[in-house]
Design a protein that fits this description.
Strand 13 and strand 14 form a beta hairpin. With 489 residues, this protein is α+β, with helices and mostly antiparallel strands. Helices cover 16% and strands 31% of the residues. It is elongated.
Length: 489
Amino acid sequence: MKKIVPLRPRFQRLRILCITLLIAIQLPGLELISYANAQTSQNNKTVQIRKRAGSQNTRPVGFKDSANSKSNSLSPSLIDNSSTQTFTGDAADNLDYRVTRGCLRRSLNDDNLPASIGIEDRTFSEFFRNQTRAFFEHMRGNCVPYAVALGKRNRFESLSIMNGPVQDNKTEIWTFTPSAVGGFLIQQDYLKDESKRFAEIQIPLRNVLYDPNKVSDKLPVELVWDLNALIKQIYPETNNTLENTNSVVRLIIDFGDRERWAQIWAVEIINPTNGEVYASAYWLERGDIPGGFFTANGEPLEHAFWTNPLSYRRISRGVGMVPAGRRKSTKPSAANTKAAVAAATNPQSQSGQNKQRYRAHMGIDYAAPIGTPVFSVATGKVIQLGFNGAFGNLIILEHPGNYRTYYAHLSSFNPELELGNEVRRGFEIGSVGMTGRSTGPHLHFELRKDGVYVDPYSAKTQLNLWLMRDTDSGQLTREILLLGSVLKN
């Protein structure tokens, strides 16, 4: 199969030179300081097998808003320090995590920025002062754009700063995170020409909710699937009047090419009049496990993606024990003769003759009509494609992190699909059927980790797929700073 070039990094990543000796002299009490590299490139992809509907004629040139075809940057105007956004979350696995974004007015003491935005870590403040002298020499504009994440008890999680509110080929973004071995990490990004592959699109919210045809005219089909799933999760149901206003869905899109999958990088539901952001989500690329969407307060959105392979009517069967027939005695014996006599004198004992057998049902059955499209829940490689006993027509996808997903009892496969293909999330891989051991039309879906079945609906299931790890915080603040809409005064 033809291989293509691995995915290039989103930005040109450079590692800051190690200055351990200098740090040891200036900060004798600080442990060894390490520096973060950009994420490793993904493995070579096979040729994409799906058609990217609508993407061939909509490739962006520069950072372009398709609504008015005006070239612009993500944050083209100065942001006053009086305008900030704070996102807070109280998810069970992310207590008190909050992100604040703004643009701090410059002063003579720029290196006091951490304390000015609420970071109470003195060790980090000292580190920041010693490491950012070159950064502030390259500053442009009268404020410093920042996005900071703080955890429980004001614990420092990550900080991203940009050398000015205008993005162009001189834009630098520095991201600071605590190191697991002590000290702090710095990731330094140079925007340069990398933003040319992104485009900004704005679609009326009512069209996203009720008129998918108008959405599919602007996006590849697989991104329509992503967008619908995202809006269902972040749309504030308590404010259902938004759909009757001029609210829009703002998207930052990479339409992809033969080297990259098409990808939504940011989604915001906003009021275009005053710039108020009602809800937002950002894509985080992770090398060791599949990437995922998270809200601006760090709440994960991936669980819904990994448990929705189709539009189903109902879940007909979950995990547990199910009947597997009755066990009957076939050979006469003295014990059977005595049991027959006992049954004749005591009818209540007859139920013991036919013992009900049970078997474990591992997986989720989604009832749906034959022919209902089935989609891949995440990007993965096809390692099984064909008939497989009780599973009937079966597709198995392998995902990073030793995860596999199973799609069984299919009536048909996508004719473009071949063993060894890599498919993107949202790609139609087959159709619902009732092949194999199936009593009615449904999709049997399984999620396995290291070969062991995982119940995705169990309250006890906590997978790293669905949680924002400590190492993800820096990427989140960087994406919020880079891709978020312009703050209004």
